[in-house]
Amino acid sequence: MSLHGEIETFLAQTRMAATRFGRLAAGDPRLVSDLRSGRVPGPALAARLRAFLAAPPDWTPGRPGGAGSAPGSNGH
To answer: Measuring CA to CA, how many Å separate 27 from each of 14, 32, 48, 52, 68?
Structure first.
């Protein structure tokens, strides 16, 4: 399976947002969008992404609407 396919499978299985994956795996929230548009990662980035996929951090999906959707979360 291609790296892009592995990432898409990971996103579907974990329900992780593409932007969160990019931010956690590579510090680039647009990474998955760019990959979907045809970006080809270089060898160093590909290795970094495969390492992330092999040992992802503990993570559970957040609430719909994101972390800022809780009442009072904006300080009011």
So the answer is: 19, 11, 11, 12, 21
